[in-house]
Amino acid sequence: MSSLTLRLAAWNATANPTHTRVTAVTAYRDGVACGHADGTIWLYDLVLPTDTQGGSKFELYPKCLLSAHQSPIALIKLAETSAPTPEGREGTLISVSEDGDVIVWSTTDGRCMSRVRSPLQNIRPTSLCLQTVDYQSAAEDLLFVAGEGSVVYVLSYPSLELVYEWQQSHSEWVTAQAVRKRKDHFRSELLTCTTDGVVRIWSYDEFGLAQQDVFSRATSPVQQSQAGFGPPGANINDGSRPESVDEPDSDSQERVMFNLESQFAALGEDHAITQLTVNPFNDDEFLAVSPKIVRLFASRNNELHELLRWRTQRSTDSLFAGAGFLSQSDIVFWDTGGTIFSVCTQFSVEGGSAGMHMARGLHVETSSDKDVVSVATSLCSVPPGAADSVLASVAGTQNARVDVLVSYASSGTQHVLSVVMPVPLSSVSGSANRPHAAPEDAKSGPRNWLGRATPFFMRPLWDGWLHDVKLPRQITSALVTQTDQVAVGYGDGVVQIVPQAQLISGQDSSGATELCGHTASITALFEWQPTALHSAALHSRESLGSAAQPEAVITAANAEPRGLLLSASKDLTLRIWDLDMGECVYVLSTQSAPVVFMAGVTVPRTSAAWNESSRHRELSMLLDSLVLAVGSDNSTTLVSVAEFERMHVTAPYHVAPVRLSLCRDTGDLVLHYADGSRRRIPLARQGGSGSQEDPANVRYPELSISLAQTRATSGNRRGRWLGATTLSRPSPVLLLDIDVEQLHASTSRVVTEQTSMDEMRELASSNTSVQVSQKVLSQICSWGVSSDLDKIKRDEFGMQAPRHMSLSMSNKRFGVNTIVFPNRASAGSSWCMSPLLNAQRMLAILVLARSVLQGKLLYDLFVWGAVHELCSVVFNNKSSEKKAVEVINYYVGKLPSQIGRRFKPLSLLTLAQYWQSANGNLQRAARTLMLSAVHGASERLRRAELFYWSSMLARSAPRAVDGEELHALTIVCVIAADFPAQLPVTARSMAATMLQTLLASRGEREQMMAIELLSRGFATFRAHVDSAMVIRRLVGIMLRITEDQGEDGGRAGRAEALGRGAVLGRAALVPSSSAPGTRRSSDGRANKASDARMGSVSFAVVGAAKSGLQRISALDMPVVSATLCSMLCDPSVDERWRALHAVGVVVQAHAALLHEHLEAVTSAIVGSLSPKRATERRRLVGAAGTCVRVLERSYACVSFHAETQTLAVGCTNGRCVAFDLRTGTRTSVLDMHGLVAAVAISPLGNLVASFALGSRELCVWDPQPSALAMFAKSLFWPTDAEAHGSVAPTKSMTIPDGFLVHSDVPVLSVMRTIKLSWTGDSTVLLQI
Hints:
globular, 34 helices, 61 strands
């Protein structure tokens, strides 16, 4: 079942990014990314101010906080995805932490695209480079990661799958690497430099590395290590090893993948080279940067030429930090002292300087160079972006790449982020004759080559920004209690119990309950809910005045359970609190380190094995009272909450405990660690001393508790709509996980007539869910964009503008959190960041708006004293619906236009995930938003969406369609249903084939998706599908009979059930008075056995198939009618039975469209009742009777007489046909002029009256003429019609002009207004 979860992030006062050191920086299209020593990454947006005459060119705003790494950020690199998104190529950030964790982030909204946790095997990374494989194939790019070792890891980008582990022949560390694509070679080259200063150039086949079918992982050193000759410590993946693989020699394999072309020794001299940069304008040249020297080399024909070198200034202690190329002859390099050097070189490749010019400037501006502690710098070449790109606007270019130098200087007093866009020195007029000689001269004016570094002083920026969004105290831990309140632990040692609505709204916590006692920050919280016996024991001990007497007598067995809260602190104490009284019950001391998390030893209540004996029950009660506290040094303390004592303490360990289990023989606990070791915690002596059973004969049930999962969830529980977690330690953010679907279910209650008065009072008085929904809506709605909308939200919904909450996205698959901070200076800017976040917000707004209106209606009625009116109140009230529709229409239609072109269109992928949601309200909202997004998008964007998702389908066509491919198919089909001309023929055929495959699958979700999409776009895919097969399949699903069953499987049982239809006498056809599709036996009992023997398809799939058949009938009735007639003539009795029921479904939905094909369908129905096979006829009589009854009710031109088994049908071509169902033949045909509007059979069944519109003629004729009459007719009417049983009317008359019915009246109106009925044996009444 789908679940829509939003995260609200409460920012913390102490979580200032300037408190942690910046270790890596880079620039992207619209801003700057900074990686910190605590593992977080901050994205800052650069915004052009409205007034650009004074001050800085940019304004800096925090955009996103990316939290996933557990160690300092070592490397950050800007990249682009190979496959373009619908809006173009998506910019990404590749971050690598010191523990080897590699993550790919989106620069658009900060979401995590892929992650690999430990490909480097905890080796500290030193260099990172990306190889773009630019050819038309599905292969991904290559990412080379090197660390403090001789191994280079090759990963696929952006999926981050390990492609190759390359063990070099030397043992020195790789300090720098670079990739270049030689234009005169078919192979690429990898440049590596090691700690000994040796530069090596390796050639490799990028196609062989990128294509999975060319290079198999089974022949890599990863698999070679399994044979005993690979590198030690290699990562072995048993699942990827094939059954039979020819393992070549390791050296030969390496020579094939990486060949050493040349080697140059001691280029780094005394200092190792930290950076290698290839000239993108001339791949023969590259820069080698070491801390004291920068050198420019040219390599040709395996020879290396040193062209230029630069040394650091002797007067300063600064070191070179990096270098790069601005053009073919322009080089820029910089040092840690804040100086940037620009060099213009004019020389030939062979060497010999033709002229060199240098200029200097400042890339870091601080009050004093001595204050600088650390400087993180990076020169990034930002790819060309859209017209609204800030960097491109300032640089004055839209189609070229922009070089940006980013520096972050940290000191004790200042934190300065500088952004510089250096201009090539050769492009400045007069620069060759007047080079800048000093830094003071370089920053003299805005016309120099450097322009001026744009500094951002981070500490004043954060102090001003946190003034608006900070919480009063530092939050260190949080927990949602059983009473739907939130327990929050602060850094000052106070635990606060806060109501949900108050915490979400960010209001003053003056009314909250505070638990004071700890002297240091709270590190962990845990709620313990006792059983009835535990609660009685607690009450008994309180009455005796002793809190630690285990032998107290239980005197209050019926006492209500009382919740206890356990809080751990850095003061090395663990306090037990009574939540009802707000008092501390007991204080325990922990082990040598603070407790970081706690887990309860809970016995499953559903297991009956714990009630087999008294020893089982005693141990169960003992385990329920235990809580395991784990310290930061991996020491553990087992606490008995019922006895208020420490039962067992384990010493610190070098790895963390991961699991707690129960020994089934002794009843002791076993603690499992990550390295496989175990420790036993004895429990047998604690209970069962008075039992008469032999302990040797007692065997306890299995019990296993995952401590890693408990630590990750941090108190979240299933079935709750709210969960509270802290992001990291020290925790900068409190995350509130709000499940919108569960919150909507708890808010929207429908009062029916069976609801009792007490239940109505309880529903009306519990207004907590409505208040919480209001607060959540206040946080996720936009404010300040429209005054009219703000007024509606305040008056009708009771919402208020938020204060300091932010939105957040989480990826549970990768364990990543992204917190979004919109620009508060611009109204509506929060809708200009992320398509994914916009789609989630829109869905939540549409779902919760209806819940709030419904809840307020019930509450208002209760307050007004009109409780007696609640019985008649159903929450689909017209006024509430109208208000909800107003909000929906505004957000869906007007909000994008009011915000402007920067509004991010809704993510169709997110909406497609809820297209088939089990929650009807969520499904309705997702489909409304998706259709609105498709119709509101421009034609260019729709074509881009179709191209992107169609290409994804093409890549996944050979495999099974599931997951993201299924969502891609949904998007393509939804767009193609309304805009078929924009979908190419090849993509249309591919999508139609996939839909047919899903329709024949066994999965109910896949079937429902295929039915919905195929029926909606049947006009688009009609030429590429087997229409008859699709209709037959829908009919089979609709009747819950799977076509996968054999021809003989279950036939006997179904035949018995189907043969119980309305049989009277000799298989006479009697119209059933029950609803179509219901089969009843002669004694009136429903055939439940028939439903039981049919397929196990759910009613949701049956309903979807029925709707799909009706939708296809509206689009193409000729195909549907022809298919049903073909099924009625099928030799299989099951196929004819299905067709009879399907006719009734089609007639009920689209009687007017089927009117034109009525004669053919009726003839097929009569022909299916062959009298030659009595057994088959008895099985089909019931379904045929139901079908005829539906036809008679839906059409005035159909009449049936049960005693004579005569069926008369009037057709649109002027023919009136009579059938005898006893023989299954057509008995007579009366030719009239114009459409036959009404037909009626006399009570005796010997006459038929029919009325035609064109000739206004009313005729009475004999449906079953005698043989003599037929012979006489053949003598006087020798025409071709006599072969068809044509008869002459017995009597006829023409209606006068005063009762004329115009022929231009719609068919549906004619069938409803004209009726024929017999008032006697010889009198007929025509009603117009």
